[in-house]
Amino acid sequence: MVSGWFDMPDRPQRSTPHAASTDAATGFDAAWLRQAAGGDLLRAGSRRISGGAVDSRLVEDGGAFFALPGERTDGHRFLESAVDDGAAALVVTEPLPEERLERLGRGGLVTIVQVADAALALRTVAARYRDRFDPLVIGITGSLAKTSTKEQTAEVLSGRFRTLRNEANLNNEIGLPLTLLRLRPEHEAAVLEMGLYTTGEIALLAGLARPSIGIVTAVRGVHLSRAGSIEAIEAGKRELVEALPADGWAVLNADDPRVRAMAAHTPAQALTYGFADDADVRASDLESLGTEGMRFRLSTPEASQQVTTPTLGRHGVHNALAAVAAAGLAGMDLETIVAGLARPLHMPHRSQLVRAGEWTILDDSYNASPDAVLAALGLLAELPGRHFAVLGEMLELGEAAVPEHHRVGETAAALADRLIVVGEGARSIGDGALDGGMDAAAVHLVADRDAALAVLLAELRDGDSVLVKASRGAALDVLVERLALSAGAGEPEA
Is the C-alpha dihedral spanning 97, 100, 106, 109 positive or negative? Predict the structure, then answer.
């Protein structure tokens, strides 16, 4: 580790890769891929291989295409497309006729390896490839704000380190290995989001990535229908800190008792962040600047100073604190860290302000959980004009679905002037709003996006603000686009 705010073991500053990675710049060859994948070499192509994909449309020139079976389709249907798009290697599970092998091999250019399990092969190849490098790896998990914390942390670290991060939310047993295959000798740090549906998954991902710093943002009842219980979610998130080395650091949310308690379950040292008075990295004196962001006092073991960030809302400040903690542990000075916090993040459909004519749209449509919706409603209340909340169903809540939707509606009654509930699955939001005292005339239960758009266009006035939020399955990002187009605009403010 790099010497930072704390008495951490020294980590040499590296401008060059680990000695074992001297060959990494040029990728790997057919023999290495066969050995790493644990399969049979059907064709040994002459091209060097670099990177990987499981979608033929996303194959980059020289990459390996892993043909995964799927519920709706099968990667083996797209082998030719992958090669046409530049794939240098194919990893398959199905036996292929000799004629097809010859065609796919392109005269000895393309490597073809057959394995028993393509998903397992992807993981083993990624793990072996990761062994070539020695970056500072920061793993991030939690029920809330994984992606935004990942983006904030990577943005801050990029002020000093050449940093790799997951694209979008490629954070599972498929996405994370693909991210590892993007490692290059120039990468000095990697910030990797790790998602979870049930226990064992984070342990698997941590075993592949081998982080030395682990951030846990929160434990909430998200994905209850899959995980089964809040205790199972807690145990699953805890797997990240359990996997850390003894000279590593667990960065824990001091404001979440379940996360704070993880300090007793890691061989690493623990560092806390949050709003709690005893947090090691904390924020106080928060002031909303509306659409301009937030101002707060940042206190670290090193110093205390006023900070302004374009990040929106109290939850955005919380994400920033996690980034500050990780960057400090990585040896960054406070001036460089604060400069990183001042740079805007570009995360489509995540707390993104869109100016649509004379309306302000808070586009938070990428995903939703009860706590995330409550945070978004709080941010909506800080925006100008009348406040319209367009809320859809929050998925995978299991038996908690009705009471949690009802809770969101009760909060909406206090913070919004108008509520548009999209879809029958979200009906309890409307019930909660009525029980919370919202006038029935201000509550609209509509069937779909088109009906929601019609209500908005009929009721919005110049200067109004609109929050759009639901689980990804509701696809309310389409509503945002249509509303912006109706206003003849649609450019994000930041």
Answer: negative
- The structure's pTM equals 0.84
Q: Are 65 and 87 within 8 A, CB to CB? A: yes
CA dist 467 and 434 (Å) reads: 19
pLDDT digits (tens, 9 = 90+) for 266-312: 999 999 999 999 999 999 999 988 788 899 999 999 889 999 999 88
| DSSP annotation string for 86-108 | T-SEEEESS---HHHHHHHHTTT
**421: exposed, middle or buried (Cβ count in 10 Å: 0-12, 13-18, 19+):** buried
Cβ proximity of 265 and 236 under 8 Å: no
Spatial distance between the Cα atoms of 105 and 28, rounded to a whole number of angstroms: 17
Angle (CA) 232 273 297, round 5°: 150
* Token pair 């500072």: residue: 136
Q: Give per-residue pLDDT as tens, 311-342.
A: 888 889 999 999 999 999 999 999 999 999 99
Task: List the strands of the sheet with 465-469, edge to edge.
Answer: 443-446, 418-422, 387-392, 465-469, 359-363, 352-356, 491-492
pLDDT at site 372: 86
Residues 6+ apart with CB under 8 A from 364: 349, 350, 351, 352, 372, 376, 467, 468, 469
Task: Find tokens 């400040």 and name the residue.
Answer: 317
**Contact (CB, 8 A) for 133 and 185:** yes
| CB of 209 closer than 8 Å to CB of 182 | no
* Domains located in the chain, CATH noted: 26-125 (3.40.1390.10), 133-341 (3.40.1190.10), 352-492 (3.90.190.20)
